[in-house]
Automatic annotation (TrEMBL), chain A:
Membrane topology value: Peripheral membrane protein
GO molecular function annotations of the record: ATP binding; ATP hydrolysis activity
Domain ABC transporter residues, every copy: 11-246, 261-503
Protein keywords: ATP-binding, Cell membrane, Membrane, Nucleotide-binding, Repeat, Sugar transport, Translocase, Transport
Entry-linked InterPro entries: AAA+_ATPase (IPR003593), ABC_carbohydrate_import_ATPase (IPR050107), ABC_transporter-like_ATP-bd (IPR003439), ABC_transporter-like_CS (IPR017871), P-loop_NTPase (IPR027417)
Subcellular location: Cell membrane
Lineage: Bacteria, Pseudomonadati, Pseudomonadota, Gammaproteobacteria, Alteromonadales
Protein name per the record: Sugar ABC transporter ATP-binding protein
Gene Ontology CC entries for this record: plasma membrane
TrEMBL record, chain B:
The keyword Kinase is annotated on this UniProt entry: no
Protein name: ABC transporter permease
Pfam family name, one: BPD_transp_2
Coiled coil, from the record: none
Listed InterPro entries: ABC_transp_permease (IPR001851)
Gene Ontology cellular-component terms listed: plasma membrane
Family membership noted in the UniProt record: Belongs to the binding-protein-dependent transport system permease family. AraH/RbsC subfamily.
Membrane spanning residue stretches: 18-40, 61-79, 85-114, 126-145, 165-189, 225-244, 256-275, 282-302
Localization (cell): Cell inner membrane
GO molecular function terms listed in the Swiss-Prot or TrEMBL record: transmembrane transporter activity
Main location: membrane
Length: 503, 340
């Protein structure tokens, strides 16, 4: 708002194009950043956001176009070079070294030395001073992995700032933060902004865009749709810009959660307890019902999912499937009972990165069939192509390694993997985390249609509106315990929020 | 999606993972043919084939067996440093049984193989159930294994006379050394087991991401354990043919440093030490490269003190050939050169 058109951009990318095999990822895209602004870069899956960020931070070379920092043409060929120039990236998945101390991470590569030896005391002291600006009062000599993702993210930002960054690139920094952590982050961003740092902000939480951003640039399918001051682009218009004609699907009819008729229970959990993670939880999922699970990070949502899939074993309590008590000691046991789980952390627990889409989809079915009944590559391909088509997975063919897909497409592959074994109970842990709005809408639609087909679903999510949109009932978790179960008229995002917050 | 079919044969060949190891092997053979036009000649004498190609295959048999097991262990994200020592143990077990008892040949072989499987079981249990780093877990047996073999042999070289057992190391079948048949047999069986069932896919899944494999219901510990059992089996067989070849068990020297040749062969085949995708045929190509190199150095009459140096240089060259980055830079340089 404060910068006028006459003012020179601090960082300017013009006519950037990038071709990938089979896809034009970026087509003559322009992007400008002014000092002291937060600029949101938005677009749905495969719009080209990540590619653009990778080009400006030197991870990928551009095919054509120019990058100017303070009117100087630059072409960083790796992140270290970009950082030296003052462009500091903070990625979706924190890319620091978890085994080193917080202080060492902050000063990695430019440790204070004397006679060639690192001055650890000095480094810790500098780190404390630096983190004071971020109101972060932690033991800097502790290893980074000791802290939550939120703190790791702040450390990554602090590292960027300490390297005299002029441009801070934040790719989904809030994806794994809870709301108070987001507030802290935003306070810091505002402070950095007032110091004249230009901030590029990528997120799929649209409300956060309106909380913090000054301007918005929208990309769609590798093309620039436009650059708008925040005041000119209300939410409806923004979604329209991001999705084009697909708007209808997203806002969708808020389907009235149909009152479950007297359905028979598929899953009954009574007094389930897992030491340190699940405390005396009871819940029921009926046939053809979608049950939501709400709660903050660490409330026990994920832990319940893990216990139901046999990853953690119960210390006490009982799980019944179709009224029969079962023991779930390992995922194979759960799969035997017709249970499938799309885990929360897609990268470490979901995708098998270097393997192809075909293999990633066929694996669960193969595990179920047993190792001696091999599903031939041809059959795997037929299976995969079926899902690629019906889920609109953006890929030239089924042989592409899954790690090269965007988050939303990866999630679709993981969903396809589990649907291939036709589970009776599908557990989804944060199915739309780190996925942007187009794929988000598709996945929600898919969940609804699965439910209509009679599959039972248990969905843990931190997006309350999403839960309200498709769940028949919502179980609210807090401190590893179930604190409420809402359904029918009492089910709304306000009531869920109320239950989460209540002391 | 139909574009796949439009790729020409040459294009597919260039993209194939076989092209660079094959090119390296061919280059070496051409070099040898230039030195000695009869290098590849094979002749038939006294009911068996003779010639450099046969010799290379025969000599590479122990490393080939080791490389088959090593490929799978490396694919799971592990490594097995103990295979050389396991060769010594299996050889010692067989030699002592042959000398001290008159049990049947079958029992001797079963005991030899069983000793290797036991070693594999120990390695596998340490890695997958105790969570010890593979390089450390197998280092234990690499060091102690040779000691155990020396204890079995009472510090001596144990020699034996047993025609049936010796046949495994130096005999022929249809004119071709038995060792080559054994490698072929183990190769075919392992290839069938890994590629005609889902085991290979499970190994790759565990090697790429063991956590995600667990969430898929794959028992990653069992998969890893099986891989170490396989290397134990292969090492025992390699130990048996090595002992059979010299009619004795030399615990100090048999299989010495061969674990490194096996690892090198897997790497020459283009596999990543971090695990994941694997190909046994490519690893065997790597074995042939190493053995051809050894033979080349031997027959070309280069001073023997240069052997190790030349081998290292050749290996670096082959690895560079396989590096995309290196090839790009070379073709970039060549391009500049042509322009100027």
């Amino acid at each position: 708002m404060q910068q006028e058109q006459s003012e020179k951009a601090l960082f300017e990318l013009s006519n950037i194009s990038k071709q990938f095999p089979g896809v034009k990822a970026l087509d003559a895209v322009n992007f400008r950043l002014f000092p002291g602004e937060v600029h949101a870069l938005l677009g749905e899956n495969g719009a080209g956001k990540s590619t653009l960020v990778k080009i400006m931070t030197g991870v990928l070379p551009k095919d054509s176009g120019s990058i100017q920092l303070q009117q100087q043409e630059i072409s960083p060929s790796n992140t270290a070079e970009a950082q030296k120039l003052g462009i500091a990236p903070v990625y979706q998945e924190v890319n620091l070294l978890p085994n080193l101390s917080v202080a060492h991470n902050l000063f990695l590569g430019r440790e204070p030395t004397r006679f060639g030896c690192i001055r650890w005391q000095q480094m810790a002291e500098d780190a404390r001073q630096l983190l004071k600006r971020f109101k972060l009062n932690i033991d800097v000599t502790e290893s980074l992995s000791h802290y939550s993702v939120a703190i790791q993210q702040l450390v990554a930002i602090a590292r960027g700032v300490a390297m005299n960054a002029k441009v801070l690139v934040l790719d989904e920094p809030t994806a794994s933060l809870d709301s108070s952590e987001v507030d802290t982050l935003f306070d810091i961003l505002r402070q950095l902004k007032s110091e004249g740092i230009a901030i590029l902000f990528i997120t799929h939480f649209l409300e956060q865009v309106y909380q913090i951003s000054d301007r918005i640039t929208v990309l769609r399918s590798g093309k620039l749709i436009g650059e708008y001051p925040i005041t000119d682009l209300p939410r409806g218009k923004l979604i329209e810009a991001m999705l084009g004609q697909e708007l209808q699907q997203v806002t969708g009819e808020q389907t009235e959660a149909t009152e479950p008729a007297k359905r028979e229970p598929l899953l009954t959990v009574s007094n389930a307890t897992v030491p340190h993670s699940v405390d005396d939880v009871s819940l029921t999922v009926n046939k053809g019902e979608a049950v939501g699970m709400a709660g903050l990070l660490g409330s026990g949502r994920t832990e319940v999912c893990r216990a139901l899939f046999g990853i953690d074993t119960l210390k006490s309590g009982e799980i019944k499937i179709r009224q029969q008590p079962v023991t779930l000691n390992q995922p194979a046991d759960a799969m035997q009972q017709g249970i499938a789980l799309c885990p929360e952390d897609r990268k470490t627990d979901g995708i098998i990165g270097p393997l192809s889409i075909r293999e990633n989809i066929a694996l669960a079915l193969q595990v179920q069939a047993g190792w001696w009944r091999y599903i031939s590559p041809e059959k795997q391909r037929t299976l995969a192509n079926q899902y690629i088509e019906s889920f609109h997975i953006a890929t030239p063919d089924s042989e592409k390694p899954i790690e090269e897909l965007s988050g939303g497409n990866q999630q679709k592959v993981i969903l396809a993997r589990w649907l291939a074994i036709s589970p009776q109970l599908l557990i989804l842990d944060e199915p739309t985390r780190g996925i942007d709005i187009g794929a988000h809408a598709e996945i929600i639609k898919l969940i609804k249609s699965l439910c209509d087909e009679g599959m039972s679903l248990l969905v843990a999510s931190s997006e309350l509106e999403e839960l309200v949109a498709f769940a028949n009932r919502v179980v609210v978790m807090r401190d590893h315990r179930k604190v409420a179960e809402l359904q029918g008229a009492e089910l709304s995002s306000q009531s869920i929020m109320h239950s989460i917050a209540e002391v | 999606m139909n574009t796949e079919t439009s790729h020409s044969f040459a294009e597919r060949l260039l993209k194939s993972r076989y092209i660079w190891p094959l090119a390296a092997l061919l280059l070496m053979l051409i070099f040898n043919l230039l030195l000695d036009a009869s290098f590849l000649d094979i002749h038939f004498d006294n009911g068996r084939f003779y010639g450099n190609p046969i010799d290379i295959l025969h000599r590479s048999a122990p490393v080939a067996l080791l490389a088959i097991g090593m490929t799978v262990v490396i694919a799971t994200g592990g490594i097995d440093l103990s295979v050389g020592a396991v060769m010594a143990i299996a050889g010692a077990v067989c030699a002592n049984l042959l000398v001290a008892t008159d049990v049947s040949l079958f029992t001797v072989l079963v005991a030899g193989i069983a000793s290797g499987l036991l070693c594999g079981l120990i390695n596998g249990a340490l890695v997958s159930y105790m969570g010890i780093q593979p390089i450390i877990a197998t280092l234990l047996l690499m060091v102690t294994g040779r000691g155990i073999a020396q204890l079995l042999n009472d510090g001596q070289i144990v020699t034996f006379q047993h025609a049936g057992f010796s046949w495994l190391g130096s005999g022929t079948l249809l004119g071709i050394p038995v060792t080559i048949w054994l490698v072929l047999l183990v190769f075919i069986i392992s290839q069938l087991m890994l590629r005609r069932t889902a085991l290979g896919l499970f190994v790759e899944a565990v090697g790429c991401n063991s956590s995600a494999s667990r969430y898929l219901g794959i028992n990653d510990r069992t998969v890893k354990l099986m891989a170490y059992l396989l290397t134990g089996f292969c090492a025992a067989l390699a130990g048996i043919i090595s002992a059979a070849d010299i009619n004795g068990s030399d615990a100090n020297n048999v299989g010495l440093w061969l674990e490194l040749d096996a690892i090198l062969a897997v790497v020459l085949g283009g596999a990543a030490l971090s695990g994941g995708r694997f190909s046994i045929p490519l690893s065997l190509l790597g074995v042939l490269i190493i053995q051809t190199l050894n033979t080349t150095i031997m027959v070309s009459g280069m001073p023997s003190k240069l052997n190790l140096l030349i081998k290292a240089l050749a290996v670096v060259l082959v690895l560079l050939l396989q590096s995309d980055i290196f090839r790009k830079q070379i073709s970039g340089l060549a391009g500049k050169w042509r322009h100027s």
